Amino acid sequence: MEFFECSLCPEFSGFDALQTGYGDSDCRMLLAARERIGTKVQSAAMLARVHSMALAGIDAQTCEVEVDVTGRGFGFPTLVGLPDSAVKESIDRIRSALANSGFSIPKTKTVVNLAPADVKKEGPAFDLPIAVGLLLADDQMRSEIAGDYLIAGELALDGRVRPIHGALSLALLTKEKGYRGVIVPRENAPEAAVVDGVEVYGVATLTEAISFLAGQLPLEPTVVDLPELFNVATRYDVDFADVRGQEHVKRALLVAAAGRHNVLLIGPPGAGKTMLAKRLPTILPPLTLNEALETTRIYSSSGKLPARTSLLARRPVRQPHHSSSMPALVGGGTIPVAGEVSLAHHGVLFLDEFPEFSRTVLESLRQVLEDCCVTIARAHSAVRFPADFTLVAAMNPCPCGYFTDPRKPCKCSAPQIDRYLARISGPLLERIDIHIEVPAVELAALRDSKPGTSSETLRESVTRAVAMQRERFGAENATTNGRMNSRQLRKFAQLNAEGERMLRQAVSELGLSARAHDKVLRVARTIADLGGESDVRATHLAEAIQYRRLDRAL
């Protein structure tokens, strides 16, 4: 058996060279790194603790990375604590990253525990905290501040720190638990820095992180200009003034924006349904900071946050194709991820060609529209994703699309039209507050040089109506008219005698269900807010009822 004699480390003399893997050149590099950060070689057993996070959906919880270097025996580091494949592979990445950064992985028996042990650990974000823990436990570095920070980052083989998912959730967890700050990859630093009161340090390499924790490299915390982010987010490239005609549809969308009501647009091809739907976000009220943080957290945890974006300060608009599967729309997968309904949180979900979606997919929306969230259950856990969005659906009135177009004859038979419309179930239709017909635009309106109502004008009306709602429901409760519960509805949407008679007649003639009855009252409350009136009058109710006329038609 070949034995290894090292002139620099006498304590290793006599060990099996094949087991230790040490050589003079390795020891020189290791000792130089240790000397650079002011530490010394120590062979005694040591235990180190570093704090990181475990991500489940969009929620983060504290994960303690414990590293025990016993100083006895040899072997590859053992990783425990319910890690997935990406976490198990981290030891190989860490070993190369340490070697290429002037350090080494401990050659004695080492155990790395990710606590709590009953929570599934997923993703490569544990690379950096495990590497820091190994160096602390092996006395290759010393730090008095390592326990004050939550650390996360993926390591490249050359020691670079790559970006991770969920940096915003990490920063929010840091603030909640009272830690001093976070150490994250440099690309994630602006994203984490939007959380006030948390020191965020972005690092590009493992050496930079180690040097900062050892007190050898001062770093400036990352700062983000939030007012400028929101200022840029209010600028849009599209405007309702681009839409010629369709003023009654603009009115319906104005009501939808003011009260966060769901809308169904029905009309022939080329009538402008898609054009109108894509301009709805331009009149929605700006995101509040809390809403922006919630939305950004979903994108960050899902790995869908655009590059060089620290905060989504503009309401998202999602437009999935009608061939989308149910997991793609509502979320799912072996490891649950957010679907389109969650990515549209606090924004707009536009479903064009509504009847062309799978019946199963459409029916999965029913519970989401009711609860404003998605819960995905798996054998080991249940993950909840928020999904409070405004649904805008568009469809043709028949398979050929020209049933209501006076200029082109419809080629569909009555049974074909009935089967086509039956793809939208009654329970799903009841959950859509406003049904509006979008007729073909006349040539005179198309050629009119006078612009239509602009987004700025409509947004001013929406802003006033939203202000009334916030005052009504209280600053601590941001409920809009479209999200009023039964108790709030009875309190804030009371009718006079004339309104009661009109509502009874509408329920009788249109066959409105209890849910549709409540939808009418919510829309009427929003129409009254747009008019600046505190009471719901019969005129407001009449307009709200006309938005439910498709209940009978469908």
Task: Provide a brief overview of the structure.
By secondary structure, the chain is an alpha/beta fold. The chain folds into four domains: about 1-35, no CATH class; about 35-215, Ribosomal Protein S5, domain 2 (2-Layer Sandwich); about 230-445 and about 455-480, Rossmann fold (3-Layer(aba) Sandwich); about 485-554, Helicase, Ruva Protein, domain 3.
Describe this structure in words.
The protein is an alpha/beta fold. It has 4 domains: 1-33, no CATH class; 37-213, Ribosomal Protein S5, domain 2 (2-Layer Sandwich), CATH 3.30.230; 232-447 and 455-479, P-loop containing nucleotide triphosphate hydrolases (Rossmann fold); 484-554, Helicase, Ruva Protein, domain 3. Helix content is 39%, strand content 15%. The strands form 5 sheets. It has a 5-stranded parallel β-sheet with strand order 11-12-15-10-16. The termini are far apart. Residues 1-22 and 38-45 have low confidence and may be disordered.
Strand and helix layout:
Layout: H1 17-20, H2 24-36, E1 46-56, E2 59-74, E3 78-80, H3 85-88, H4 90-100, E4 108-115, H5 127-137, E5 149-151, E6 154-155, E7 161-162, H6 167-177, E8 181-185, H7 189-192, E9 199-203, H8 206-213, H9 226-233, H10 247-259, E10 263-266, H11 273-278, H12 289-302, E11 317-318, H13 326-330, H14 340-343, E12 348-351, H15 359-363, H16 365-371, E13 373-377, E14 382-386, E15 390-395, H17 414-421, H18 426-430, E16 434-437, H19 443-446, H20 455-473, H21 486-492, H22 497-510, H23 514-530, H24 538-546, H25 550-553
Parallel strand pairs: 3-4, 5-8, 8-9, 10-15, 10-16, 11-12, 12-15
Antiparallel strand pairs: 1-2, 2-4, 6-7, 13-14
